[in-house]
Amino acid sequence: MSRFSHKQGARFAGFALGALFASAFACKSAPGLDDELNGDDGSGGFVGLGGSVASGGKIVLPIGSGGASGGAQASSGGAQATGFLVICDVPSGPSVGDPSQSLLIDNFDDAENSFEGNGLNGSWYGYNDESVSGVQIPTGSEIRSEPGGPGGTGYALHVQGEGFSDWGSGFVGQFAATASGQACLFDASAYSGVSFWVKGSVEADPAVDGERYDPDLLRLLVIEKDVVPRAEGGDCDADEGACWDSHRIKFPVDPCWRLHAVTFDELLPDGYGFDGGQLDLNELYNVNFEIGRGNRYDLWIDEVSFFVGTPPTAEPICDVGGEGGAPASGN
């Protein structure tokens, strides 16, 4: 059922690139929807037809969904790739992952919003739907990690939010940019998936009336070039469907630290817009964590990493005191 139609410029605080990301990378852009989008099933303003849900570390896929990964360049209507986003040179070399080196994306132990190494040169920033009542702490490029953890060790990313009544809010790690700040792509084709530790809460927000989108769930999104608008260097033609229909999965969250490991072929697009086809692992742009409207949240995230082969597993850690950190994984 169609419930709204919003322009892209009104959907994300992060679209004011020059102001919001001046302290990060010059060419960053927050993920969002392009031009007109009608309808929603609770996926952050997205019409969700295929998002899978994970519970307790076990991935549950919709029957007949069939997620896929690979290097095929597919797009709706036979459109040709025209975007300017490409693999580039970063301080550690080409923006290509080498499985013989560190698989870590970020363990947040430097208390900064940036990460680098093994083809990565990126940073984290927050984005949201700009609801008048919305509060996101921290937001924009102000995102920083905080000390704490099981046994009082390490740092972790700590984010909170409430009052978002349009589609919701989230935070994103852009994989790569040149030394001058030009956004570029990352080649993760040598990897099997992504893992991360998370704990906290996602619960009903009493300040927001109406339907909750993806109640009590945290979304993980992996964004490829195919679904990025052409204006931002991607291959998505908004005339053929809404952009940003990225591959994703959804998780419950609780007060215990839990390790989630997702293979790339378990990520599925929602199906609301431009068909980017298979997830092109050699053309990745961002990794996002997102929470839908009507949910307030207090989340700790740590040890975001790629993995090769069998997904890593670990027992939950139910620490006392409730502060950050998790044991290292994926290195």
Can you offer a commentary on this structure?
By secondary structure, the protein is mainly beta. It has one helix and 22 strands. It has a single domain (8-307), classed as Sandwich (Jelly Rolls), CATH 2.60.120.430. Helices cover 1% and strands 34% of the residues. Strands 1, 2, 7, 8, 12, 16, 17, 19 and 21 form a nine-stranded mixed beta sheet that branches. Strands 6, 9, 10, 11, 15, 18 and 22 form a seven-stranded antiparallel beta sheet that branches. The chain has a two-stranded parallel sheet with strand order 3-20. The longest helix is centred in the first third of the chain and has 4 residues, at 17-20. The chain starts with 16 loop residues before the first helix and ends in a 24-residue tail after the last strand.
The secondary-structure class comes to mainly beta
Shape: globular
Say what the CATH topology is.
Answer: Jelly Rolls
Q: Roughly what fraction of the amino acids lie in strands?
A: 25-35%
Strand and helix order: HEEEEEEEEEEEEEEEEEEEEEE
